[in-house]
Specification:
It is a single chain. The protein has 181 residues and is α+β, with helices and mostly antiparallel strands. The chain has two domains: 12-102, Beta Barrel (Thrombin, subunit H), CATH 2.40.10.220; 110-179. The protein is 39% helix and 30% strand. The chain has a six-stranded antiparallel barrel with strand order 1-2-3-6-5-4. Strand 4 (59-64) and strand 5 form a beta hairpin. Helix 1 packs antiparallel against helix 2. The longest helix has 40 residues, at 105-144. The radius of gyration is 22 Å and the shape is elongated. The two termini are 19 Å apart.
Length: 181
């Protein structure tokens, strides 16, 4: 039986460097600082990939810049999950849960993730349209042999496919990143 997903928000692929400050449990002062790579993110937490894996419930302070942002987002967090060597693609790393976020930064983070999710949905739509267009091109190629007028439509679709092919790899990358989480 699969482990139940406890996440309420869709996690989205990101590649953001995050300054991670490990905090002392009693004084809440910085013990050590690290620079880790965020691989996916929700408004509730983030997966940090890197060789620094802390024990569960370790208190952290996160600072990171969102793309296009000029001031860093600051949040308190705790280690909620550790990747094991049996988790391909995640190991080494850890999932952290955001426990408190600086005023205004929560909205900035939600807006960033909402835009990213909207872009993902548009990418999926475009990919589906692209696949339909490729299929139409193949069917028109078959029809061309039996109908002379089909040649014109085939040429129009071939030109459209060539133009779309030039950006299709970007769409595929965006969709693959989110689907592969």
């Amino acid at each position: 039986m699969k482990k139940k997903e406890r996440r309420y928000s869709k996690r989205l692929a990101v590649h953001i460097n995050i300054k991670v400050f490990r905090l002392d449990k009693k004084t809440m002062r910085t013990v050590r600082a690290y620079l880790l790579d965020a691989r996916d993110m929700t408004k509730e937490g983030v997966f940090l990939r890197g060789n620094a894996a802390f024990p569960l419930d370790t208190r952290l302070r996160l600072e990171f810049n969102l793309p296009g942002g000029d001031t860093p987002v600051v949040a308190d967090a705790r280690v909620a999950w550790q990747a094991k060597p049996s988790h391909p693609g995640y190991y080494p790393g850890m999932g952290v849960s955001i426990t408190r976020i600086r005023r205004g930064d929560g909205k900035r983070l939600r807006d960033f993730l909402r835009l990213r999710l909207r872009n993902y949905r548009h990418a999926v739509k475009l990919k589906n349209m692209y696949m339909q267009l490729k299929d139409m091109g193949a069917r028109l190629y078959e029809l061309e042999r039996s109908h002379m007028q089909a040649e014109h439509f085939r040429k129009v679709i071939e030109r459209a496919i060539i133009e779309i092919d030039s950006i299709a790899h970007l769409i595929d990358k965006e969709v693959w990143e989110v689907k592969s989480l």
